[in-house]
């Protein structure tokens, strides 16, 4: 089966010599929730804009749902819905009018339009005939999601969809994204909230300085992080952290030690034995595994 999105040697160099993409090879599986991560300026938005037809690539090929963006631009654009990072729409249109216009631009016949169905899905049906400029920030974000769905695309790209929205709305949005995914939609997500990517994405690619530095299953990426933290509470106050327990030992308060160590080389039991050997008594122990943020920082620092 062809990939939902397939990039081969995709490159973009701007007129001023700025290399935004240095030759990206990437296949996004159909039916997945795929995370596309990277620092600001890494090239994520350039990649999305090329797929949207807003930026011309310098080299390489790109296809969406099997349609090459150069050879079959109409079919490629019909196969993807993009929710941009910026909130852009006509302030004097209602949500209903906005979706009707968007459906018309995609050539959706009036009898096949699902305007009210989509507005209900994003919980904007009660605002269907209110001027869009009166909507709250979170409602405007949901309206952008609705616009991307009017032509029923098999691929949905969400570019920082929860930026600036409250926790409740973020949860509502992810619940809806999960519903879309369960219905067969391939979802591509860019986000700075790494805990979201860790919780939602089946697979994650990390881009830095226009190049791919990682592309793997989420749980496989997490397994590459070898750092682990042992947090121990002592039965008495100590003035300073003892040396030689791990790569980094931090005294938190007067009775708590946070010891960071490489779990591939050291076991927690050995550290606890060392603590006992220096005359300290442990009354409580907990461990903390590395998360996606640790992997992200490790890979982007290495690329830099």
From TrEMBL:
- Return the Gene3D superfamilies for the record: P-loop containing nucleotide triphosphate hydrolases
Q: Which UniProt keywords apply?
A: ATP-binding, Nucleotide-binding, Transport
Query: What positions does the domain ABC transporter occupy?
Result: 5-234
Q: What is this protein called?
A: ABC transporter ATP-binding protein
- Per its UniProt record, what PANTHER family does this chain match? ABC TRANSPORTER ATP-BINDING PROTEIN (PTHR42711), ABC-TYPE MULTIDRUG TRANSPORT SYSTEM, ATPASE COMPONENT (PTHR42711:SF15)
**Which GO molecular function annotation, any one, does this entry have?**
ATP hydrolysis activity
């Amino acid at each position: 089966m062809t990939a939902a999105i397939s990039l081969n040697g995709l490159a973009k160099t701007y007129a001023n010599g700025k290399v935004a993409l240095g030759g990206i090879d990437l296949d996004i599986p159909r039916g997945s929730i795929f995370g596309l991560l990277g620092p600001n300026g890494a090239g994520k938005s350039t990649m999305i804009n090329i797929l949207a037809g807003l930026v011309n690539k310098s080299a390489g090929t790109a296809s969406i749902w099997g349609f090459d963006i150069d050879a079959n631009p109409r079919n490629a654009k019909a196969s993807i819905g993009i929710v941009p990072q910026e909130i852009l729409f006509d302030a004097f249109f209602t949500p209903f009018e906005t979706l009707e216009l968007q459906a018309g631009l995609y050539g959706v016949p009036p009898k096949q339009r699902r305007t009210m169905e989509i507005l209900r899905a994003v919980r904007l049906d009660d605002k269907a005939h209110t001027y869009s400029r009166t909507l709250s920030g979170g409602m405007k974000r949901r309206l952008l999601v609705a616009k991307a769905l009017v032509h029923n695309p098999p691929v949905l790209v969400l570019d920082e969809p929860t930026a600036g929205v409250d926790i409740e709305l973020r949860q509502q949005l992810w619940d809806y994204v999960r519903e879309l995914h369960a219905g067969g939609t391939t979802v591509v997500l860019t986000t700075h909230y790494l805990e979201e990517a860790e919780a939602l994405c089946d697979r994650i690619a990390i881009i830095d300085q226009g190049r791919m530095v990682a592309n793997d299953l989420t749980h496989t990426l997490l397994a590459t992080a070898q750092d682990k933290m042992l947090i121990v509470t002592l039965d008495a106050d100590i003035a300073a952290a003892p040396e030689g327990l791990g790569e980094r030992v931090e005294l938190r308060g007067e009775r708590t030690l946070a010891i960071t160590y490489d779990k591939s080389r050291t076991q927690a039991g050995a550290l606890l034995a060392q603590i006992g050997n220096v005359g300290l008594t442990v009354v409580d122990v907990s461990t903390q595994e590395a998360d996606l943020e640790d992997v992200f920082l490790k890979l982007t620092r290495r690329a830099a």
